[in-house]
Design goal:
globular, alpha/beta, single chain, about 170 residues
Length: about 170
């Protein structure tokens, strides 16, 4: 196990990003999100990143270690498979939705440089699945069942917990 991950985990953080170096990068965002888990691990923080299943990300699955069951859901009329894996000592929820993410070009534009017409839908789906994970509405990869816990250390996230608990 990587030395940085030997400290007891005291906080789980859910990161949501469209880029993560070295899996996918178009600019500085990929550098920052890729560096975040290693920077926080020595403080006892485990970062798990929700990442779209772009071609480079999906090809990295062959080097991954499965951390939980494959979860299949439907969001906005699209079938989504959520791979719970670790790659290069980083933990991920990879959103496998080929019609939205498995495309040539960059994460944001087609090969001709024009933005994908459905970028709003693509990133709404990413955000919606991340919110469901944060509110414990999807299976927890460590136990394989629904959890009351939150994966992000933000005070406003308690609203998600309260809505789930009292609704």
């Amino acid at each position: 196990m990587h030395q940085a991950f030997q400290k007891k985990i005291e906080l789980d953080v859910l990161s949501v990003a469209s880029e993560f170096f070295p899996l996918v990068k178009t600019g500085g965002l990929g550098d920052v999100t890729g560096a975040l888990p290693g920077a926080l691990a020595p403080q006892g923080v485990r970062v798990r990143t929700v990442l779209p299943g772009y071609p480079s990300v999906m090809s990295a699955l062959k080097w991954s270690r499965r951390e939980g069951d494959l979860v299949e859901i439907t969001e906005f009329g699209h079938a989504v498979r959520i791979h719970q894996v670790s790659i290069y000592h980083n933990y991920f929820f990879i959103l496998d939705c080929p019609e939205l993410y498995l495309r040539s070009g960059s994460p944001y534009t087609a090969g001709n440089g024009k933005s994908w017409d459905d970028n709003g839908l693509r990133f709404a789906l990413l955000s919606r699945v991340a919110a469901r994970l944060a509110c414990g509405l999807l299976p927890d990869y460590r136990r394989g069942n629904l959890t009351e816990g939150l994966y992000i250390g933000l005070d406003y996230a308690k609203v998600c917990f309260a809505q789930k608990k009292f609704s």
